[in-house]
């Protein structure tokens, strides 16, 4: 399944953040692997539409979409050469679908920085260098084999792969990640897929700030520029850890007193979900109001298959209403008489927030 790996240098607040992400979530109990592997956390994706839906349908339960975060230890200078937990680190990060870098901005004389002083730009560079070196090693190992295969078989598709891998190597040698530079360099990253390159994964950044820096717009703009086009999330991990201990209304009050509207954790999960190229559709009834995870661009039968493979196999049609139309109408019956409920067939491409009932043969 799709997961986001959390990486960063030591003492930047990774564990604090990961614990806060996973601790307040009762969902984890339903996912056995999450309790077996303490480095994997299953997190519910915040969705304000669900309580609204539950009210309309009188649903007893709310079940949000979920996503996985993996706490990946061992990123230090030299990790690509096997320093620290080097090889284990690389194996773990390879399995994730996106990389979330935690960057320390907060200053605290009691928390030492591995490189002596706090510098977000240097830390970003250190991490990217390790990921780039790891990718260059992967390429150096694979290229002779790919090249030989392509030449002996005179295989056009394989020659295209060799060409893309060679272009990627050049870019990486210039110190540029594939995430940041592949498109501009005209490299089709889908041709690199079999190599599982680390810097080709989508990146997002969490800047761990001091409380007093949370509202510093100049600072935020500077940090955002450092990592664009990646998404940047600004939070104070220590405060996030406090927020999860509070009842919702008190947590919101504390956030607002710091000039924030949404917790950093909530932003991270929401933005992380989108970074993975995912979206949700909704189902509701008296039992539960629920969000289901699909890839952007998924068709109605594919979406049905997320609930049950039989639903996909026996798909007939989907009864669909957009969340906004449903809320405006006030009930399913009212939405129907207003002509807002559509019958969609096999070709229909799902839209985020579609409220759906599937018709199928078993
Ligand atoms: P990791 O090594 O990256 O996992 O870092 P930890 O989460 O273990 O944090 C290292 C130390 O920094 C701990 O003592 C944390 O309490 C502290 N820390 C984490 N986040 C913050 C923060 O936002 N502000 C301050 N002042 N300290 C923090």
TrEMBL record:
Keywords: ATP-binding, Magnesium, Metal-binding, Nucleotide-binding. Pfam families: MMR_HSR1 (PF01926), YchF-GTPase_C (PF06071). Belongs to the TRAFAC class OBG-HflX-like GTPase superfamily. OBG GTPase family. YchF/OLA1 subfamily. ATP binds at residues 11-16. The keyword Nucleotide-binding applies. Its cofactor is Mg(2+). The keyword ATP-binding applies. One of its GO terms (molecular function) is ATP hydrolysis activity. One of its GO terms (cellular component) is cytoplasm. Residues 277-360 form the TGS domain. Residues 2-277 form the OBG-type G domain. ATPase that binds to both the 70S ribosome and the 50S ribosomal subunit in a nucleotide-independent manner. InterPro entries: ATPase_YchF/OLA1, Beta-grasp_dom_sf, G_OBG, GTP-bd, P-loop_NTPase, TGS, TGS-like, TGS-like_dom_sf. This is Ribosome-binding ATPase YchF.
């Amino acid at each position: 399944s799709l997961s986001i790996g959390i990486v960063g240098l030591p003492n930047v607040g990774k564990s604090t953040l990961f614990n806060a992400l996973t601790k307040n979530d009762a969902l984890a109990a339903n996912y056995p692997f999450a309790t077996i592997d303490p480095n994997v956390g299953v997190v519910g994706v915040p969705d304000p539409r669900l309580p609204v839906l539950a009210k309309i349908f009188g649903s007893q339960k709310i079940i949000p979409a979920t996503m996985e975060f993996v706490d990946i230890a061992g990123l230090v200078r030299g990790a690509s050469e096997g320093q620290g937990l080097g090889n284990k680190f690389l194996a773990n990060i390879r399995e994730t679908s996106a990389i979330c870098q935690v960057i320390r901005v907060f200053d605290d004389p009691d928390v030492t920085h591995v490189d002596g002083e706090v510098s977000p730009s240097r830390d970003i560079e250190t991490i990217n260098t390790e990921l780039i070196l790891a990718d260059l090693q992967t390429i150096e190992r694979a290229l002779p084999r790919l090249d030989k295969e392509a030449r002996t078989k005179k295989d056009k598709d394989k020659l295209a792969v060799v060409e893309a891998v060679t272009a990627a190597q050049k870019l990486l040698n210039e110190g540029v990640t594939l995430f940041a530079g592949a498109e501009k360099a005209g490299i089709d990253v889908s041709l690199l897929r079999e190599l599982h390159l680390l810097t080709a994964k989508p990146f997002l950044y969490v800047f761990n700030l001091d409380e007093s820096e949370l509202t510093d717009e100049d600072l935020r703009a500077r940090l955002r520029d450092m990592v664009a086009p990646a998404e940047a999330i600004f939070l104070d991990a220590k405060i996030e850890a406090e927020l999860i201990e509070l009842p919702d209304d008190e947590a919101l009050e504390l956030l607002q007193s710091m000039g924030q509207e949404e917790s950093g954790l909530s932003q991270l999960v929401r933005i992380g979900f989108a970074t993975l190229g995912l979206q949700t559709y909704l189902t509701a009834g008296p039992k539960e109001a629920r969000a289901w995870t699909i890839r952007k661009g998924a068709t109605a039968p594919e979406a049905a298959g997320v609930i049950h493979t039989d639903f996909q196999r026996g798909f007939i049609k989907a009864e669909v209403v957009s969340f906004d139309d449903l809320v405006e109408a006030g009930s399913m019956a009212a939405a129907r008489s207003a002509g807002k409920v559509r019958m969609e067939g096999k070709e229909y491409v799902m839209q985020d927030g579609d409220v759906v009932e599937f018709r199928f043969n078993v």
